[in-house]
Input
Amino acid sequence: MGLHAYLHLLGGLPGLWLNILAVISAIPWPRRRTSAADEDTELLARLRAGDEEAFLALVARHNAMLLRLAYSLVSSQAVAEEVVQDTWLGALRGIDRFAGRSSLKTWLLRILVNRARSTGVAEHRSVAVGDAGPVVDRSRFDASGQWMSPPQHWIEDSDDRLLAESLSDHIHAALDELPSRQRDVVMLRDVDGLSSAEVCEALNISEGNQRVLLHRGRSRLRQALESEMGGC
Amino acid sequence: MFWQRQELVCQQVVELITDYLEGALSRSQRQRLEAHLSDCEHCTEYLEQMRLTIRLTGHLKPEDLTPAMRAEFTALYRRWRSQED
Output
């Protein structure tokens, strides 16, 4: 529609509608909160435009996850670090081909898994669960299986983020104490946000196996936090 | 009633919690678990603690790059750029 026609149309609008339009366009609409995926998309765009800082930002975001997975896939720390470097190099080389159909994380993971497998030093770990036994001590239940020392409520409604910040050292310590397979799964699922299918593919374990590891790892974390909060 | 013989007790519930959160329970198991939860404040609290644990873990921030890592990856990037040009 030509400008002239547009202005003519505007001129014909009742004053009330014009006022409403004016008010609406003056309201500062809140910016949509960027998601992790949005941030990756933005960094990718900057990287493609040749922005070195964008690359470093992407590394800062994802390197820990890649290292974590590499350690669990290959037998030596040195090889793991090489594999991760190779992964980033592979990502840079393939950056123009990355179509964004999967998330960047998933794409990086696939590159890493391929690199790790091609090193040929894959560690053949039996998927030992790391520990057996109940996730809550038997002594906390009575003979009929009901709670005798039940979990005490931790906190009233509070900001998860603030609580997480104050507890982050404890969570890190508790994660460090997990058997490594449990830690791998818990971190890939709950820290890195990968799906169950992605974790199974990356670690080459079954769904059932993954769930057991996740169960034990998470239960231990809960226990550690409970101790911290002054519970049993 | 028939189903009462299959009622879950707390000690079983805590072992099924992850399967429940993952949607991996059969329908009848899920129903039995939810029936137990509706009657058991302790297991309900336990479930909430598991959910909170997951959320708190999810808030862990990725660590910043150490200066050494920054240098390493800067070098990697620049090597790649020089090969591209």
User: Anything to note?
Assistant: The CA atoms of residues 91 and 108 of chain A lie 7 Å apart. The mean pLDDT of chain A is 84. The two ends of chain A are 72 Å apart (CA to CA).
